[in-house]
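Design request, tokens follow.
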């Protein structure tokens, strides 16, 4: 049966680059995991094995490290934009570049007297501990004319120990879950948001500030929402970001419901007054939805693992 070549891409995945900026005795760290995917006029290499249009993946790896030196890493988004523009504009057969980046945050180690990292002691200017709160992510796509930047985070674990209920739901003969009027609400936030910056003619967002503010509004909405369902909380988190950040048009969440069940202590003659819980890691409810600016068409894939 005749066959034809479909969508294809190639590149070097998971290039771990760490950039140290030395400001005198004070050091700053950017720690990235960069994956490059290129596509374009690549039929011949698949059909005949001709590498005439192929930029080696080893070269893309070298470019990542060279650009860390030549351009620095102001932000994950800005670094990805530099790379995508380079690959599309420097290689005629390459028509589209997709750069995916994970950023791992570090914080300075506090001094033994518990003071802030900014007190000026020599040892804290270059000593760091890896933050475990979340991983920052971004994907930059460029086709020589327009940009698409989707950023976000994953593995941000949050919990409300009260101000959450779940009741009034559909019940059938298989329902055993008891209604809850004071429960723990916990989740591991995975979120992607799409910027409305698509052209070099537009003013580029401040990527670092935008990320910090989106994260702040997300957490504030989680903390301040009296929740009757995780879906309600999700919508409030997305709405807060859209309404507060004009550069963001769409945000998609994937929120596992990290169930905490009250432990039955009556066999031991003890009363459990919403104090002792069993944290179940599986199975778990999975709540996913997109929040959009009114009038905007969704573009973030339903399956965010493809980002």
């Amino acid at each position: 049966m005749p066959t034809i070549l479909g969508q294809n891409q190639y590149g070097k995945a998971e290039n771990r680059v760490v950039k140290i900026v030395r400001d005198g005795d004070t050091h700053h760290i950017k720690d990235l995991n960069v994956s490059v995917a290129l596509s374009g006029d690549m039929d011949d290499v698949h059909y005949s094995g001709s590498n005439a249009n192929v930029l080696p993946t080893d070269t893309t790896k070298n470019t990542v490290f060279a650009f860390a030196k030549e351009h620095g890493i102001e932000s994950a988004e800005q670094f990805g934009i530099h790379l995508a523009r380079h690959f599309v504009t420097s290689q005629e057969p390459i028509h589209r570049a997709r750069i995916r980046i994970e950023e791992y945050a570090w914080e300075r180690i506090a001094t033994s007297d518990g003071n802030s990292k900014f007190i000026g002691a020599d040892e804290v200017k270059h000593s760091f501990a890896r933050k475990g709160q979340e991983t920052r992510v971004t994907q930059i796509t460029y086709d020589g004319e327009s940009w698409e930047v989707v950023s976000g985070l994953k593995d941000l674990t949050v919990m409300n120990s009260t101000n959450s209920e779940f009741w009034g739901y559909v019940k059938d003969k298989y329902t055993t879950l008891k209604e809850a009027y004071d429960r723990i609400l916990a989740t591991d936030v995975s979120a992607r948001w799409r910027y409305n910056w698509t052209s070099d003619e537009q003013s580029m967002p401040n990527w670092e500030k935008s990320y910090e503010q989106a994260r702040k509004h997300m957490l504030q909405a989680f903390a301040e929402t009296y929740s009757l369902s995780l879906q309600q909380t999700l919508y409030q988190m997305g709405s807060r970001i859209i309404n507060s950040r004009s550069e963001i048009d769409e945000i998609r969440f994937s929120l596992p419901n990290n169930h905490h069940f009250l432990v039955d202590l009556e066999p031991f003659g003890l009363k459990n007054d919403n104090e002792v819980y069993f944290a179940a890691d599986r199975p778990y409810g999975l709540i996913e939805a997109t929040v959009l600016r009114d009038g905007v068409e969704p573009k973030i894939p339903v399956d965010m693992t493809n980002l």
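Comment from the thread starter after seeing the answer: thanks! The first strand starts at residue 15 and ends at 23.
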